[in-house]
Amino acid sequence: MAKRMILMLTLMAAFIAALGFVKIRQFQAMADQFAAMQPPPEAVTTAVAEREDWPAALTAIGTVAAIQGVTVSADLPGIVERIAFDSGRTVREGDILVELDTRQEQAQLAAAEAQLELARLNFERMQGLVQEDAVSRAEYDSAAAAYKQAQARIREIGATIERKTIRAPFSGFLGIRQVNLGQYLSGGDPVVPLQSLNPIYVNFGVPQQNGAQMRVGRRIRIAGEDLGGIEVEGRVTAIDSVVDQTTRNVQVQATLSNRGGKLRPGMFVEVQVVVGASRSVVPLPASAISYAPYGDSVFVVTELKDQQGQPYRGVRQQFVKLGDARGDQIAVISGLEPGEEVVTSGVFKLRNGAAVRVNNTVRPSNSRAPKPKDS
Fold first, then answer.
1. Rounded CA gap, 193 and 197, in Å?
2. pTM over 0.90
3. I want to staple 314 with a disulfide (CB 3.0 to 4.6 A). Which of 5, 156, 304, 333 is the partner?
4. CA distance 117 to 279
């Protein structure tokens, strides 16, 4: 009985061992089959790397400001009698803008002129009498003082009349008038904005670590859709002596020619300050860069071989050093050679050695000065 039990257990153990061996071989075959399988190629877009010369420049956002800009105001109170300008027109220094009612001052001037005539006659009479010792010296001095006071009164009233004629303090462009005929103006009430637009200032800030690169005379360039696609160049003319404690930026002021008047005070513009010689870079769309804590990289399309030695079109991850960004482009300083085909979209789903299928029907934007479609 015991022998029969031992034999049965032995046969059962042999059967189980054989079954386990067969299953292990099946699982190994399945694993080898899965390992040999290649995932389907990923659809990507590509661009061929080309080398360009980019000038070394700092980019900042600036604000346009007038070299001279004021809101012309009333100096003295009065009623608007005449408006001698049109909104939005050009005026020259000294041109009359507004005249206030001066009828009261004109009447005062006529009375003062009569008083001056009387004082003059008294003074001349006293001159003859004092020479004959007919009047005292004190009476003569009093007549002379009255004559001078009458002259001063004439000048005072004349200055008041002149101050009620509001003139352009400098040549420039007028804004929208803020007065109407018959309106009463108090001293300091606004009449019209006046801006001198040629030349014009652009004020911008640069980080404190770049402040040492700013020099008076450095060339700047601004461009924008508001300028009709043209670039305007100017020079740095002033650098602030302090660093802003809030932003840690150094304020810089540049002067530009604005003959067409396209730059207006208050506009935002993109400013590029040339700080050195041009250097050779490989510009790529920003979507081509794979950012990571251990380094930035791109994927280069090349011919690879699988485990069976069969060739396929795949990607090789290439680490690169990046420079400045301009528009849609980022400058690659090193790590990439001209002529290499670089993946420009779909990099987030790639890995080193992944198979790809290139479809350049729709490509990402790759412009140094992009313009929004619906702007």
1. 12
2. no
3. 304
4. 82
